[in-house]
Structures are given as C-alpha cells and as structure tokens.
Amino acid sequence: EAEPAPSHLPPWGGTREVPPPWGLRWAAGPRPPILWLWGQRGALVAREQRERGVAGWPRAAAASPPARLRRDMANVKVALRVRPLSKRENAEGGRIIVEVDEKVAKVRNIKIDNRLEGPWDTREKIVAFGFDFCYWSVDPEDPKYASQEVVFQDLGTSVLSGAFKGYNICLFAYGQTGSGKTYTMMGTPASIGLTPRVCEGLFSREDDYSEQPASCRIEVSFLEIYNERVRDLLTQSNQKKPYTLRVREHPETGPYVQGLSQHLVTDYKQVIGLLEEGIANRITAATHVHDASSRSHAIFTIQYTQAILENNLPSEIASKINLVDLAGSERADPSYCKDRITEGANINKSLVTLGIVISTLAQNSQMFSSCQSINSITSEGDIHVSSHPPGSVSGPRRQAYIPYRDSILTWLLKDSLGGNSKTIMIATISPASSSYNETMSTLRYASNAKNIINKPRVNEVRHQLLILFNFYICFKFIQHIYQTQSEHI
Ligand code: ADP
Ligand code: MG
C-alpha cells in the first residue's frame, strides 16, 4: 500500500523537486493530463501482470514472455574477494582454507577430521563455488593478487558504463565484520576503494563509453540504517534525534527517504569532502552506540542525470547509483546472539530480510526459467503447458511473495533486487580456518544471489511538450513564409 505522494511533487507524476539548470526548466514541468492518463494505463497493466505472476499470463501470451522483458533481464553479478590474514589470524597460526582458481573459489571442509577419514566417508573435502569474478587479495606478492585497481577495472567500470547508458546500478558489499567490506567500498587514503573511484570516473568521463551528454548533473546523498531507523549522514545540524527519517514510496519512482539531504556536486573534491564527512558521522555514532558501524548499513547514492540531444530533440537520461556497505553478516545469524540476554534486539532485521528476499527472488527466477523452457517447448507445438488445472501441485506454481517492506534496507533497495537495476554483489571473506562457518555462510548467500534476475531498463524521459512545440514552431514558420510570399505576389 503505497503512501500518497508528497504534496511538493507535481500532481501529474513528475518527480523533479528541483528544476533542471540547463534551460529546459519549462519542459520538465507537469505533463499534460492526457499524457499522464496514458502513462497510468500502462502502469496499471504492468502492475496487474506483475501481481498475477509469470504463471498467470494469459494463455495467448504464455508461449513466451514479452521479448522486451526477456532482452532486458540480467542476472545479479556476484564477485568474491578474499582479504589478507589479519594480525590475530596470523598469531593463531594463520591456516588458509580458501583457494581461488579463475572464477571458482574452493574451501577446505575443516569439519572432516583427517584422523577419522576413511573410504566410508563420502563427505566432500573441498567445496567449490563459482562466481562472475573472484579476487585473491591475500598476498601482494602473489601473481594473481587483486588490488583495488583490479577490482575497479572490473566492477567500477561496469558501474560507470551502466550509469552512462542510463541504467540504475546497485553495488553492495556483503560479508562478516572485518572481512573487508568497507575496505573494498571506501578503501583507505593509501588504497582508494570503489566509491571514490566511481565518483572520479563520473567526473573524468572518457569518450569511449558513448556520446558525451550536452550537460550532466550529479547529486549525492549518504544515509545509514541502524536498528531499522534511517539517519542522514550529511546534515550539519546537531539534531537531538539523529535517526528519524521516514521511508515512503512514490507510485512511479518507488521507495525514497523523506527529507534526506541531496547535495549537488560539481567536482571530485566536493564528493570526497562529503564522503569523508559521512564516514566521520558514522564513526562518531559508533563511539556513542557500541559497535554501531558493524551493525549499520550505509548507502551512498549518486543521482546522475544527463541532458542529451537525440535527433536534435532534448531528452534526459537519469540513473541512480546505490553503493552499499552492509552490516556484518554474522548479525543475520540468530545463533550468533544465543548467549546474549537481548537476543532479539541484536539480530539485524534488515539483514535477515535481505537474506529472505534474495532466496525468494532466486527461487522465483529459477521457476521463471523453468517456465520459459517449458514454454519454449510449447511454442514448438509438442507439449501443452496448461494441461494441469491452475493451482495443482504439478502445474506451474505462482511466484512467491517478496517481503521487501519487512525491513527498511530491502524496501529502499527494492529496485536493486529483482527490479529496474543492474546489480553487483561483492562478497568478502577471510581466508582463515577460524572463519570457516562465516565463510561458508557468505559463499552460500552469494551463490543464491547469482540466481536473481533483474529487469534493468534505460531511464529516459523525452520531453513530449518540447517535441509538440517544435512542430508548432515549424508550422508557424512555414505559415509565415507563405504569407510573406503571397504579400509579394
Ligand atoms: P568490514 O568493513 O567488513 O568490517 P574492513 O573493511 O574494515 O572490514 O576490514 C577490516 C581490516 O582488514 C581493515 O583493517 C582493512 O584495512 C583490512 N583489509 C580488508 N580487506 C583488505 C584487503 N583486500 N587488503 C588489505 N587489507 C584489507
Ligand atoms: Mg565496515
């Protein structure tokens, strides 16, 4: 149940709070009611199809989902990064149980005791997981060592090229506390991470991506979710209640944080200033609330809008980049807090819900692909897909409900998980045997995320009013020529 749109937004579904600076001010205003109604009709049809699920598509359309939908689907890309042994792990003996071979990570099963090993023991000694990218960052001397630059060249550049084309992008880091999430996302002054590098890439855009836009506009915001409450990391005022922002849902643009400060930036230095300010605010909070940073999720959002001329007509391409540093994944595990009195309070609801959302989406996507394969046989005319009565066990099942609204994090990242976004997950692990359980749980989680299929699309707004206006001007001009010619005659 979407909450009503805030009153400061145009009533026709326009989403712009601040008018654009590049002289298209009037063109970005409210759309005429007839166009708005046309848009609403499309949205209603789309929503109905979504709610009915894939299996509920009308018989005629069941042969295969719309071609446009198939083309635009994209699996969540998953990368794995293994960090160096920490001082403590080294002191404990530093036994490494992880190995990376191209795109496969192998973990030695330490639960199998070598002394008891025998021919009757059929358990796997090595468990392997395949990913889109695997980064071995354990030893800088190793030839396959993956530095921050290597990670950026794969993941950062794909974030940038997606943003330049007008897609929404989400990159999130997942792993236990101390596994290298913040190092990968933010980095250190000596070894800069993905977020600052992506920002730098936006400002120093190179020609090899696509045509340069006429102008572009970059706005950033930085928030933190702690104990299911949202806090703006970029407000200077010393508010007494820092965690008070509300999440609402706009019928067209989806969930957003009400009152979150947006900062217009014009160069790289400004973004770095804001990033540092936000990180410092996170750390200050951590000293007040014990260990807050490893229990909070930080989302750095870049709104990247390009004004382009397409066939000499102005249009806008808007892309939203979410760079997310999640809380330590051990907080999602109820067994982690077993010995604590305040057990319930310590479990991170957002992280637990994220796990449920990811596994439900993965199940749905697998169901979708099996539907597709059955349907492709049907289209060849051999088997009838709906020979089962609806609702029967063996027939195509309904898609499971995705509980996005059960937590703030999943609600805000709704589009990034199974929606209009290209999404990359980077799972970080420690190579040490002492982290075996956490490592296995992160790897299973990440493998699950690989199955999610998103539906990214280019967010382009054509200025219909402007097109009509161009026609009007042409018409007036031709009329004027005719009139002046007839006066001469
Ligand atoms: P998290 O954010 O997951 O809790 P951090 O990013 O803070 O973990 O990493 C914990 C420690 O490990 C930090 O001191 C960090 O500098 C170090 N570290 C993590 N990943 C790497 C890496 N790939 N290379 C070098 N040091 C790393
Ligand atoms: Mg961290």
From TrEMBL:
Keywords: ATP-binding, Coiled coil, Microtubule, Motor protein, Nucleotide-binding. InterPro entries: Kinesin_motor_CS, Kinesin_motor_dom, Kinesin_motor_dom_sf, P-loop_NTPase. Belongs to the TRAFAC class myosin-kinesin ATPase superfamily. Kinesin family. One of its GO terms (molecular function) is microtubule motor activity. ATP binds at residues 175-182. Residues 75-452 form the Kinesin motor domain. GO terms for biological process: microtubule-based movement. CDD domains: KISc_KIF1A_KIF1B. It comes from Chelydra serpentina (Snapping turtle). This is Kinesin-like protein. The keyword Aminoacyl-tRNA synthetase does not apply. SUPFAM superfamilies: P-loop containing nucleoside triphosphate hydrolases. GO terms for cellular component: microtubule. The keyword ATP-binding applies.
